[in-house]
Every structure is written in structure tokens, then in C-alpha cells.
Amino acid sequence: MSEPTPKPIPPASGLSGPDGTRQFLRLFTSVMLPMFMAAVDQTLLATATPVIVQELGGLRDASWIAVGYLLAAAATTPMYGRFGDRYGRRNTLLAALAIFTVGSVACAASQSLSMLIVARVLQGIGGGGLMTLSQALIGELVLPRERARFQGYFAAMFSLASVGGPVVGGLVVSHGSWRWLFLVNLPLAALAVWRLLTLPAVKPKPSDASHDFGGIFLFAGAIVGTLFWLSSGGHRFAWSSPTSLALGVGSALLLIVLVVYERRQSHPFLPLELLRLPAITFCAITTTLFAACMFAMIFFLPVYLQIGYQTTAATAGLLILPMTLGMVTGSTTSGRIVARTGKPRWVPVTGMGLSSLALVVLGLSSASPGAVAALGFMVGLGFGTVMPTMQVTVQTVAGRERLGAATSIVSLSRSLGAATGTALFGALVFALMPQTDLAHLSEHVRNASPETFLPAFHTAFLVAAAVAALSAFAASRVPETNLKG
Q1: What letter would DSSP give residue 3?
Q2: Where are the domains of the chain?
Q3: In a 3-state reduction of DSSP, which class is residue 98?
Q4: Integer distance in angstroms from the first to the last C-alpha of the chain?
Q5: What string of DSSP letters covers 139-195?
Q6: Under CATH, what is the fold of the domain 22-200+269-476?
Q7: Is the predicted pLDDT of residue 13 greater than 50, yes or no?
Q8: The pTM of the whole model exceeds 0.85
């Protein structure tokens, strides 16, 4: 099969008028599927995990079905940013898509939980490049000011995929095999490859930079050790145990060695030179804190509704849809505001402030399920303002030649925030519950009054409100960036 002849889209071209709309639709349909596949696979198994564990066994390690994917994606994100800058972003994205597809096949064929976790890690290695390189392609082909408007659409799609993942996963396992959750990636990947081959392969500028394999391995070790410690402490081992202390100290030492090593490299793997720019540093902090809140809400709001209000899984899934609608509305609206004004700074500040306020109300009151849904809409509305503004700010400040590395910083921040937020909020909720023996938690939930568990979630919501407020503060520290063509 010969490669389709790409019709050129001029790099950083304007996308106004009928021709601009056609060019945008062509770009959108080319990178939408890789982004969707990367986003939905982060949360798709949230409601399907009990069914998978029932078939494959291994309840103790069930959380690693999700954590393994997130760890692999986080560890490989900067690598794809650098490779995209050096070898071309379209071709590197195709390679990441191939790895993701092989991992999907391995997941569907898994016969044990250990095999599934290994396959999920392989899938995450490919998934780490899908979001980063798709966003970099947008920056490569669209002007900064117009990029803000279109980034809103992509951020809305990401939000819809992330929050809709648990709902779709629940529906699939209710009517068929969980293996279809992975097999469906095959036709989607084939369609994505076909669309990507219609985009121009923009030739990167020659570079004499060598591969920093030492930095890659140090980064992977530090991130895996840190996230394993955060996701396992409190239930796999006690926080004060020798195992916990060894992991914490060892991960911290690896991070220190990584920073020292990277500073001595002429072409470091980790884009530390970009983190010296205040705008990019505060964008990364804002994104990390936002992702911690968002993924904590995605995973624990349905649990809160099922435990505290005795709703069914299907009803809980429907009640979190307003949060999805809020994120989609916030993403598209903020993108249009930034495109009109060219000034993104105060949009996420206002948005995360709104989310913090709604989370405070959730934490201080025992609202009805309907009121929880309404507050979820407000929370999502604020969440939706972050990614469009952070992406376009970082890409504009970094410049065209470092688009891949800059975009990888935002993607890495989101992955780290997602993993740490899910792990730490989970540890907090379970620690505050009156029955902390996870082996008998489900039985205790059935026999105890729902009011017994509400205070644990209310405290977690207040902590999330504080994290959202910190995210708003970090966003306020981003220097004003004027998005000019």
C-alpha cells in the first residue's frame, strides 16, 4: 500500500475563511483519534477493573492496571517531545501509534493479571507520545492566536474522553467482554494512520544533538520509583515502614542525580532549559495541580455517589456527565476568549477559582445527588479553562523549534498530576474511613450507614479545593503572554 500524497498545509498557517476551515477539519480529523485514544485509555478501565479481576484474579495488584499505563506514559513523554523535534513530529507520532496498537493487542490477549499489567505498560509507552505529538503538530501547523481557539476543541475532546471513559467501560463490560475495550483500538489506529499520512511531514532542522540515554533511564527510574511509592503507600506497605522509607529516599536521590546529570549535558533529555522560563515553570505547576484535582474527581466522585447515596453504578456514571459538560463548555469558551483577546493569563485563574469554590461547597454540605451533579458542572467548567491556555502559552513562549519539548512538559505535568492525585486522594479517603481493612471494605459498606463514609469524602473535597486554589495561584504567576501571529 503506497503512502497517500499529502496536500501541504503551510507551517503555522492562518486558518480563517472557508479554506482555513477545511484545513482545520483536515488537521482535526488527523490528530483527534490519537489524542482520543490516549485520553480515554487513562480512565477506560475504572469501572471495568472489578470484572477483569474476577476473570483473571490478582485483586491485590488490580490498581496497577491503571497505574502501569500512567507510569509508562509519564516516563516516555519527554522522550517523544525530543524525538519529534529531531526526526519530525508526524513520523514520530506514527511510531508511537504503532507501539500503542501492539500494546492494545497484547492487553486483549492477556491470560493473567500480570500479563495484562505488562501489556498496559507497553501500551503506555506508546500512549506517552500520542497526546504530546498531536499537540505539537497543532503548534507546528497553526498560528499561536488561532491555535488557542482550536486548542479549546481538543481540550474539550480530551475532557470528554477522560470522564466518559468510565461510563463507556461500564457499558462494554455489562454487554460484552472487557477485551473489546482494547480490540476497538485496532480499527481506530488504522483510521488514524490513514489520516496522519495525509499531513505534510515537516522536515526538522538538522541537529547534532546526541541521544541522552543516561538521562532517559534516570528519569524513568525516578518517576517510576516516586509514583510507585505514592500509589502503594498506606495499603501495600505502611508509610513509616522500611520499604516506604527506602523507596522515598531512593526516589529523591534519583531525582537529585537526574538534575545534576542533566545540567552537565550539552543536549539534555529533560528540557530543563525551558523550565528556567517563569512562564513555562508556572504553567507546568498549574497543570500538575489541575490534573491532580481532575483525575481525583473522575475516579472518586462516582465512588462517593455509590457509597454515600447508594446510587447504582449506571446512575453514578450519569451524574458525573454534568462535570464532562462543564469541562467541554469551559474548554471551548476559554479557547474562544483567548482567540479574541490574545491574552490567556487570567482565564485559568478565574476557572480554577470557580472549581475551588464549588469543591468547598461539596466539602461543607451533604447535597442531594442532583445538587452534586450541578456542583460537578461548576467544577468541570473551571477545569476546562486550563489545558487550552497552558498549551498555547507554553508553545508560544518556547518557540517553534522547541515545540515538541515544550508540549511534552505540559503532557508530563498532566500525567504526573493524574497519577499522584489519584493515588494520594485515594489514600486519604481510605485512611479517613472508619473501616480501613480494604479486604473487608465492600462488606462494611453494605452493612454500615452511608453517613459513616461521607465525612471522609467531604474532607477529601476540601483538600481538593485547596489544591485547586493553589493551581489558580500558580496560574496567576504566569507572566502575561500576548499571542500574536
Answers
A1: P
A2: 22-200+269-476, 212-268
A3: helix
A4: 39
A5: HHHB-HHHHHHHHHHHHHHHHHHHHHHHHHHHHHHHHS-TTHHHHTHHHHHHHHHHH
A6: Growth Hormone; Chain: A; (1.20.1250)
A7: no
A8: no
